[in-house]
Design a protein that fits this description.
The protein contains 2 helices and 26 strands. By secondary structure, the chain is mainly beta. It is globular, with a radius of gyration of 20 Å.
Length: 395
């Protein structure tokens, strides 16, 4: 047992059990099987369905998110801080103008883009991005009016707190829930993992906002002095997020450390355990926690050890892939694949991998209005922008 493990585990466990800062249950105990943290599963098999893969756009720099507009245009965010337009199957040469100042660097930059449910009437486009400097930055949520390739009337709605001095683990996924509220994932800043159990911080959370950025009156209460925007806590770095209207479920995927990527059902007031419980270990091989379960916290619906580095997440609803109706689509950056998760109700019962042998990390996945599957990919080792947007249909 390393000194680093002792320090981290003791700090986390004391914080969780002390009740300080509204953090965690007061009498929780850990459990589960720690051997699972280092038990490596075989890769999912290659999928049997033959796909047609159409390249809609290429030469993108780390494309992060895809959004569909009512007029047929497709918006694609580039993490470096640009917003691009795909129109009639062609990438427009000029990026969208009027974006707010965005902090770049390592994992920082422009993240999710999300049209308002009534975009046709109000033209509001919601953005998640990093703001600040290397020494003081945070995830920010803003909205702006979009028209004719330009943004205007930019309004800052929410800043994660506190600011941090790392360019890691921002979260940055946005979703409209069935209640008309805006939900967002906020990462825990990597080296500030203990703040995922600190209810005075928004780190390691899903936050719930009204469309204008105000806080709903019916958000869950985590304790006296806790932040009112919190919907759930105990997350590491939520990178996939989608609302399943037919099941009434908010699905979330998040990065584990070395192993322990998770698929979660997000429910009000739940604590998802990080870093008190994990199915992974630290990158240097040290144990972050001896527990895979922790009393008072919620277990994942599914976990991946080794990590697949989960990214975008979608529920398939459409006619083109009829046999996939209601199944989940999970992007993977490690192993560079699109994972098809076969579902039986809200339970995963099968898994297969697609887009293998292309060498492209899958950053985002969406189901288009036409029923096709749209995927944003990137090549991280190429000095030139080589990101693409792919359109997938069955052969």
């Amino acid at each position: 047992m390393t000194k680093r493990f002792l320090m981290i585990s003791c700090a986390v466990l004391m914080t969780a059990c002390s009740g300080e800062s509204g953090a965690g249950p007061t009498s929780a105990k850990g459990g589960g099987d720690p051997a699972l943290q280092e038990t490596l599963a075989d890769p999912a098999p290659e999928g049997e369905l033959a796909l047609d893969v159409e390249v809609l756009a290429e030469g993108l720099a780390n494309p992060w998110s895809i959004a569909f507009l009512p007029n047929g245009d497709i918006l694609v965010s580039e993490r470096a801080g640009r917003l691009r337009i795909i129109r009639d199957g062609n990438l427009m040469p000029d990026p969208v103008s009027g974006l707010p100042e965005i902090h770049p660097g390592r994992q920082a930059g422009l993240f999710d883009i999300l049209p308002h449910p009534n975009f046709s009437e109000n033209n509001w486009l919601y953005l998640a991005y990093a703001h600040g400097t290397d020494r003081a930055n945070a995830t920010r949520i803003a909205r702006a009016k979009y028209a004719d390739g330009a943004l205007g009337e930019v309004e800052v709605l929410y800043d994660a707190v506190p600011e941090k001095d790392t360019n890691h683990h921002y979260g940055g996924r946005l979703v409209w829930g069935g209640d008309g509220k805006l939900y967002a994932t906020i990462g825990e800043g990597s080296k500030y993992k203990e703040k995922a159990q600190d209810m005075t911080s928004s780190f390691g959370s899903v936050v719930r906002l009204n469309e204008d950025g105000t806080i709903p009156d019916d958000n869950p209460v985590f304790g006296e002095g806790t932040r009112p925007e919190l919907f759930t806590k105990g997350h590491r770095n939520g990178q996939g997020f989608t609302y399943d209207a037919e099941r009434g479920i908010l699905w979330e995927t998040e990065h584990g450390p070395r192993g322990g990527d998770e698929l979660n059902i997000i429910e009000a007031g739940n604590n998802y355990g990080w870093p008190l419980a994990s199915y992974g270990i630290d990158y240097n091989g040290a144990k972050i926690t001896p527990f895979t379960e922790y009393e008072g916290t919620t277990q994942p619906v599914k976990y991946w050890t080794p990590s697949i580095a989960v990214s975008g997440l979608a529920v398939y609803r459409g006619d083109l892939f009829a046999d996939w109706e209601g199944d989940l689509l999970v992007g993977a950056m490690a192993g560079a694949a699109l994972h098809h998760i076969e579902m039986d109700g809200d339970k995963p019962v099968g898994e297969a991998r697609y887009l293998l042998n292309r060498g492209e990390r899958v950053r985002d996945v969406r189901v288009g209005p036409d029923g096709a599957i749209y995927v944003a990919t990137e090549m991280t080792n190429d000095p030139e922008p080589t990101g693409k947007v792919l359109r997938l249909t069955p052969q």
